[in-house]
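Hi V.,

Quick status before I head out on leave. The structure for the redesign project is tokenized and pasted below; the design run finished overnight.
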């Protein structure tokens, strides 16, 4: 085979890879624009025209990749749920009994807060009134999984508690966090920091008499 033929074949193989890379960059651009629009306008009021305008492309370009805003929201939700699962896996891992309760709760809350403040569209989409059905299902599954991880963690810290008590405690902890998260996302700067600390303080004071001396013992 001649050098010319080999070069032509190499170019032919490279072209699809380049097209794929350009397509992936365009999808990322559209998803970032959609996240900003969903945060500003909400899912219901958002439109594909607004997303295309935010991305700096024509509606026709957007439709090459997504048929409608629901498809955009679902793709965005899929990626965020994947990242969220990684975040809660780190946040709700086993805790060393020598870890002070304040430190254990603070670390877990910080990881969740960091994810949600870096991706505010996650809260906007997952808690909106008219999210696509698939996203609602994903949220329910994620809620169930996170709740199960919290129960497992609490069960190790409350060995004498009845399963129903552990489940109830897990529900309260998650409910406190989710309620506080809405306040955190509504504020910035020092006020945001203060609200994060309030969430930690509430959880510490709630769990302290239940966990007893299980944490913080050397």
């Amino acid at each position: 085979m001649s050098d010319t033929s080999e070069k032509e074949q190499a170019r032919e193989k490279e072209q699809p890879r380049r097209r794929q890379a350009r397509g992936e960059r365009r999808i990322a651009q559209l998803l970032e624009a959609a996240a900003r629009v969903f945060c500003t306008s909400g899912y219901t009021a958002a439109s594909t025209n607004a997303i295309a305008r935010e991305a700096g492309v024509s509606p026709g370009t957007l439709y090459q990749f997504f048929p409608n805003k629901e498809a955009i929201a679902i793709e965005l939700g899929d990626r965020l749920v994947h990242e969220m699962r990684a975040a809660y896996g780190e946040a709700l891992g086993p805790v060393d009994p020598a870890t002070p309760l304040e430190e254990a709760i603070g670390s877990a809350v910080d990881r969740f807060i960091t994810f949600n403040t870096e991706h505010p569209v996650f809260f906007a989409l997952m808690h909106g009134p008219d999210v696509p059905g698939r996203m609602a299902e994903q949220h329910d599954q994620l809620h169930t999984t996170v709740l199960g991880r919290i129960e497992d963690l609490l069960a190790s810290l409350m060995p004498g508690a009845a399963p129903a008590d552990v489940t109830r405690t897990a529900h309260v902890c998650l409910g406190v966090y989710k309620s506080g998260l809405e306040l955190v996302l509504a504020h910035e700067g020092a006020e945001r920091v203060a609200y994060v600390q309030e969430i930690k303080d509430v959880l510490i004071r709630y769990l302290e008499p239940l966990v007893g001396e299980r944490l913080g013992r050397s």
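Above is the designed sequence. The chain has a mean pLDDT of 86.

G. will cover questions while I'm gone.

Best,
W.
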